[in-house]
Amino acid sequence: DFADREGLRYDVIHSHYWLSGVAAEALSKAWGGTPIVQMFHTLGHMKNQIARDPSERASQSRLDGETQVVRIADRIIAPTPAEVEQLVRLYGAAREKIVVAPPGVDLAHFHPIPQLQAKQMIGIPPQRKNILFAGRIEPLKGIDTLLEAIALLKERRIADLSETCVTIIGGNPWADTLDEEMERLQRMSLELGLDDLVAFAGARDQNILPYYYAAAEMVVMPSHYESFGMVALEAMAMGTPVIASEVGGLAYVVCDGYNGFLVPRRDAQALAHRIADLLNDRLLRERLSRNAVHYARDYDWAIIAERIAAVYEETLAHHPARA
Fold first, then answer.
1. Alpha helices in the chain (DSSP H)
2. Which of 105, 107, 122 is nearest to 204 (CA)?
3. In the chain, how many domains are there?
């Protein structure tokens, strides 16, 4: 209705996530076959492979919707080669219509800030080392593995935690009725004796988030599945090394030993040792930090936008002209 009222004619529909892809099919038909470029960001079948509880599984309607969108989309953008293979294997996608183009990062917003300045901004004492998690509070993010790793560090004393804190950004830890996963994690933190180390900081605005990245010695992403891993890229743009599970897009964004470290998912011991490496070695942190900033430059939105625009042009070139 809006397009008709305003006299607009769209050349391409770029839909994100599966439900927008379903809507895109209806719009394409209404507009006489406007081509569809689709990016899923997460895949239901991949979530189901790592789900530990029925409540974590993607619905059948989502799986059916994704399968239909894969079939009707003119082009599909995958953030990594890993997702290309997942789309082909799990959804029967035609390989020739999939293009690899990662998301970008706004380097005007995410760029190195002096760590002491960042700590002062968010109220962390200058001598305190900060381990940061940022993301949604849900089981597939593996925050329980991070808590187990911190408990191992404390128990085995393989790193000095006397001036260390763990900040978990996401969710609402002060809600009258806590989200089930938030409640589980807070209870787990208490049971592991980490209440003096771990702070559940809740969601943070995008304007203040860069200071949290810059104030941290490392960002930890112990996810069980990530299609890409924007948090990792944002942290690197700030010059903060990333320790991540070797899964999905994280295995491509994090270059082990260059801009961070990769560990097996759900392996608290391996994660604990990599956290200790960064806590104990300032020169290592500085080297990974420099590399991370250099690496993130290739993901500048100015560069990525050109790649996305090229996908639009290529899609239109292979699509029959509309009357």
1. 2-6, 17-30, 44-50, 60-72, 81-91, 115-122, 143-156, 180-191, 209-215, 230-237, 250-253, 268-280, 282-296, 301-317
2. 122
3. 2
For residue 323, what pLDDT is reported?
A: 45
Query: Residue 312: exposed, middle, or buried by beta-carbon count in 10 A (0-12, 13-18, 19+)?
Result: middle
Q: Which amino acid is at 68?
A: Q
On the CB side of 70, CA atoms within 13 Å amount to 23
- Closest by Cα among 219, 72, 66 to 132: 219
- Report if residue 270 sits inside a domain: yes
Q: 146: which 2 tokens?
A: 């991070």
Tens of pLDDT, residue by residue over 126-151, are 999 999 999 999 999 999 999 999 99
Read off the CATH number of the domain in which 77 is found: 3.40.50.2000
Domain that holds residue 281: 115-299
Task: Specify the pLDDT at position 174.
Answer: 87
Identify any residues that bridge with 202 across adjacent strands, giving them in sequence order.
Answer: 169
Q: What is the pLDDT of residues 89-99, one digit of tens each?
A: 999 999 999 99
- pTM (2 d.p.): 0.91
Polymer length of the chain: 323
pLDDT per position as a tens digit, 53-90: 788 899 999 999 999 999 999 999 999 999 999 999 99
Tokens 């290592």: give the residue: 284
In order of 15, 50, 62, 85, the CA distances from 21 in angstroms are 5, 24, 11, 20
For residue 243, the cross-strand partners are 220, 261
